[in-house]
Predict the structure.
Amino acid sequence: MTDARTHILAKLERVIDRKDAGSADADSRISLHIAGPIPRRGTDETKPEQTERFVREAMLAGADVHELISIEQVPVTVVAYLRAKNLPLNVRVSADGIFENVRWNQEPGLEIENGGVEATDTASLSAAASGVAETGTLVMASSPENPAMYGFVPLLHMVLLPESCIHGSYEDAWIALRQRQGNLAMPRMVNMITGPSRTADIEQTLLMGAHGPQNLMIMIVGGT
Amino acid sequence: MKSSARHFPANAREALADERLQGVLDKFSDGFPVKRANAIARLDEFDELRDAARDIKDHVLANLDTYLKRFESRVHESGGHVHWCRDDQEARTTILSICRAANARTVTKSKSMIGEEIAINDYLADHDIEPVETDLGEYIIQLRQEPPSHIIAPAIHLSKEQVAETFVEKHTGRDPDRTLTDPRVMLDEARAELRQKFLNADVGLTGANMLVAETGSIAIVTNEGNADLTMGLPRVHIALASIEKIVPTLEDASTILRVLARSATGQEMSVYTTFATGPKRTDDLDGPEEFHVLLLDNGRSDLLGTEFQDILRCIRCGSCINHCPVYSTVGGHAYGWVYPGPMGSVLTPALVGIEDAHHLPNASTLCGKCETVCPMHIPLPRMLRSWRVRQVEKNLQSASSRYGLGLWSYLARHPRLYRVLSNCVARALNIMGGHRGKLSRLPLAGGWMSKRDLPAPQGGTFMAQWKNSRSRYL
């Protein structure tokens, strides 16, 4: 295929009208990460306002949001939600460090498993890298601890989001992601998730749970 | 997909006579436009974002070779493969050879207009590999062996009753006497059928909404999550993208995302926007072992530097289609190829040739709504006019429109004759209108007159009235 590559690139070189162009231009644009216009709703708000907006926007997009005072409330919140949705008390939980000190045995009957997601899993719980207030969007960064498929295979996806990880705009979330990755490459999968899976392909009727989760439940934990 | 764009007039007549289709289309025209307007009303900065989005793509097109090379080296660094393809044939053979090397029997697919453009499904099926569409709309039309009728809502032309019939006929493992009337039940049935396909597939084939040069990522936007299951579960992931899909950075991608979903479905953001970078990494518990990106030209580079370059800014939101009075009257199939509506009427002649698609630039009233709603400020009406000019240069119009235009241009150059003739015609029409003052039939205008009456001219011609009363105005 080298042939096609050479052919296409040679042709582009020939036809491109280089008024403002040059590879130095492209390189600097890539390294400077210049942001475009950011809606004021993403830049002008205080931290508590950002949390409030995140909750509001995520709910508008169809997510269920719970604000917790501490991570200790996770098991009871999870169990109550599973019961409300009439789902079995089995959860595939990510190996993210944030869940290390969660005392799952507080809730008798709740079955927790780590590891890769399986086709039969009904509910999963993973940790978000960021939340974006602008549109109530979660940013999930895949890793061995937080496999991307947690967010797609089960009927219910539950996500833990530390309040400190809520940002105003996508741009702020990218800055945080770059800091977190350091010199490492982009995480293999970065999933921006805004509400549960849906389709309107049958006569424009909006239905949740097309292929991904029918419910998206977000737990925001303060003070972390 | 083979083009039947040359049959547009016949296709359109058929669509107009199809009452069921007309019913579905009536419902269509108040769906997306209203949702888009609501979403934009919530965002004061929308126009500023549109300008910025246009500038990003213009900058990319002026540096396309550089960005493609940057993207390629990032994909290599992350352990992926890049395949450059000049045309549809090269793309098909490349995909087939990757599938063969993976011993693939089934390929799951998330919606890709380029997949339609290169007709990959038929090609794979001809080579004993089963392609399975996973976007619900695409899945339905694949079962019915129909092409998509809209770039973001491929089954928009179908009623739920038709979907139910299709499921009863094709989902053979189920009770053939079951009642399927509720869309929820239909969706659950499709979800169950497709879940097994996701789990069994050897290769996942997706499109790409954007390619990020900074990171070597492909960005894919869906509401169903089907693209993620398509790329996340099989052993091999192939992403199919045309070369103009490049954006420099994640920041640039964000600007485009802010206008994309709002323009398309009126959502603030589509449910899933995924940036995928390279294959499964050490210790990852899921993900494909191979990651391939196909960079397809297929005629795009021919548009650079021409009056049609701006169509390469298109992000396939479908907004021009959703607002087009012609599309909402004839539907998507009439256009005869992959891309319907205004953007299709500009792109199709470029990709399949004006000779084959010369009717499409005429399938427009040039009302300009498409340009008004385009998030990338693409001057669609100007480009439709450019195609009309090419049409005349190549002598592609029908004999009657050639003679008609010739006659009109002769008259326009002979004002006195023009005045005398128009005066006679106005009087004749006035008499024909009789006491109703309306005409229900006219020679050469049967199509137009079948749905409307023409008010008969009253009084003198414009020129005569102007002459009589100019002293009053001057």
